[in-house]
């Protein structure tokens, strides 16, 4: 195996790019790409004529391919990765037009969502699940504007003490 440009690539932005597949690829396409790269960069499969430097780069690539597969093979970690990539794209593709504190948004208990009105008469809607998964950029339902929702994640202990009313205003009445 001669010097390969893919071996020289050290920094990649997503597990999809590590495996050379698109974010819309099927599970089978991702698996085939992983298997192909696994055979290409596995330390036991490398050409013996490679220099030590090329061997080290191939091993680094092998590890990044393996890590990418572990992320994309597991449905939960793949979903989290997809959300993070979507958020990165949102922040790059659509500039954030405003920052809104979560406390200033209206809470809808039945749907477990927060909403805020947009100047176009559309709405910004974000679910509790999105917030728990670290997503904080929301597009308007009626136009191309987006906002960043500002909030603090509570630890489980903090959430329990808040629910119990310990130290809160609710306890005094």
UniProtKB/TrEMBL annotation:
<dbReference type="InterPro" id="IPR036671">
    <property type="entry name" value="DPH_MB_sf"/>
</dbReference>
<dbReference type="GO" id="GO:0008198">
    <property type="term" value="F:ferrous iron binding"/>
</dbReference>
<protein>
    <submittedName>
        <fullName>DPH4-like protein</fullName>
    </submittedName>
</protein>
<comment type="similarity">
    <text>Belongs to the DPH4 family.</text>
</comment>
<keyword id="KW-0408">Iron</keyword>
<dbReference type="InterPro" id="IPR036869">
    <property type="entry name" value="J_dom_sf"/>
</dbReference>
<dbReference type="Pfam" id="PF00226">
    <property type="entry name" value="DnaJ"/>
</dbReference>
<keyword id="KW-0479">Metal-binding</keyword>
<feature type="domain" description="J">
    <location>
        <begin position="14"/>
        <end position="85"/>
    </location>
</feature>
<dbReference type="InterPro" id="IPR001623">
    <property type="entry name" value="DnaJ_domain"/>
</dbReference>
<dbReference type="Pfam" id="PF05207">
    <property type="entry name" value="Zn_ribbon_CSL"/>
</dbReference>
<dbReference type="GO" id="GO:0001671">
    <property type="term" value="F:ATPase activator activity"/>
</dbReference>
<feature type="domain" description="DPH-type MB">
    <location>
        <begin position="96"/>
        <end position="152"/>
    </location>
</feature>
<dbReference type="InterPro" id="IPR007872">
    <property type="entry name" value="DPH_MB_dom"/>
</dbReference>
<keyword id="KW-0862">Zinc</keyword>
């Amino acid at each position: 195996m001669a010097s390969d440009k893919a071996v020289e690539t050290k920094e990649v932005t997503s597990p999809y790019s590590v495996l050379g597949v698109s974010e819309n690829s099927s599970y089978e396409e991702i698996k085939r790409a992983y298997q192909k790269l696994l055979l290409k960069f596995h330390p036991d499969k490398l050409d013996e004529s490679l220099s030590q430097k090329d061997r080290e780069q191939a091993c680094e690539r092998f590890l990044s391919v393996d890590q990418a597969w572990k992320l994309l093979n597991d449905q939960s970690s793949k979903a989290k990765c997809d959300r993070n990539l979507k958020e990165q794209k949102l922040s790059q593709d659509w500039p954030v037009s405003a920052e809104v504190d979560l406390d200033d948004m209206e809470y809808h208990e039945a749907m477990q969502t927060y909403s805020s009105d947009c100047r176009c008469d559309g709405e910004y809607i974000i679910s509790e699940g999105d917030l728990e998964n670290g997503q904080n950029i929301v597009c308007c339902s009626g136009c191309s504007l987006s906002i960043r929702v500002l909030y603090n994640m509570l630890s489980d202990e903090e959430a329990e003490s808040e629910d119990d009313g310990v130290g809160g205003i609710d306890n005094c009445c």
